Amino acid sequence: MRIVIFAGGVGTRLWPLSRKNTPKQFSSIIGGSSTIQQTIKRLEPTFGASQMYVATGKRFKDIVIEQLPEIPNNNFIFEPEMRDVGPAIGLATYLLGTKDLDEPIAILWSDHMVKNDAAFRTTLQTAENIIKQKKANFIFIAQNPRFANQNMGWIHHGETAMEENGLQLYTFKRLKYRPKLTEAEDFLESKQYVWNLGYFVTTPRFLIENFQKLAPEMAEGLQKIADSYKSSSYEQTLMDIYPTLEKISFDDAILERLDPKGVYVISQDLGWSDIGAWESLKEALQQTKTENVTKGNLLLKDSQDSLVFNFTPQLVVGIDLDDMIVVNTEDVILICPKTSVPKIKKVVESLSGTDHEHLA
What we know:
Helices cover 31% and strands 27% of the residues. It has 360 residues and is of the alpha/beta class. Helix 3 (85-97) crosses helix 6 (204-214), helix 3 (85-97) packs across helix 7 (216-228) and helix 7 (216-228) runs antiparallel to helix 8. The radius of gyration is 21 Å and the shape is globular. The chain starts with a strand and ends in a 10-residue tail after the last helix. The relative contact order is 0.15.
């Protein structure tokens, strides 16, 4: 199985650590390595670096090659500009399809945390075997929900359809992105909804057929790029066509209209967390809700339920902090309640055209 790891996002919700030129997946947020390095390390014992592909923006070429020397040069896919996840997955799918249309592929993301590495690898292997045996066309890899999370997608599944390697595969019903809190609470209670991680296993053939059926204009452009792959005209064809593709999410382009026949869900306790925002990072690292999550040179007094990260030698002192986010970098200090994290993106966008644009 070939594994495609996407690393093209900017990650404004983790600003000021994550920025346009140094996004979160290349930063050392937890531990001593970047999240993309941790992703490769997590998978390598089972799948090997030669089977891993990394898709990212062309502007990150130098940093991703520097951080991932174990990945073969031919296994990097560089998008000339950001066109959302629909075209990004389409490009990787069509290029890998030129090698083998029926070899399973896994789509993963580089900015997540997975605590149960062995369970994750076993789940991917199980999905790979089921796809190889043609018992399924498409398998979602999901996380058993821990709480009523309203900031991510959920998968509604049906009954158990089969069992493989001790894992249950459920039928797939529908996706629901960012439900209202009351909906999320109902989902959690129903036991028929799980968190959608954006991870799945399928084949290039199945995805290409669905691009042709559900996004024909995009499919036509992607096919032209694929036809030029490994030729001297590839780079120019990619530059000419990819920026013209519709900016659209993969959910909107394909998944929301996917025929559920042959589509299944494996949901596990993977210890998965989306660390794409400061409040999500705190939830991932905390043992209890009231404890503080900290990093760096700090002194906290009478404080609780806060995340305080200091990326400088300077001492940061916090007194009477409650439910707060404090992030100190060399040139920016962020201070806000956890509930205000969604506003960070707008603040970063507002820096464009100002004297502080270089900080975005």
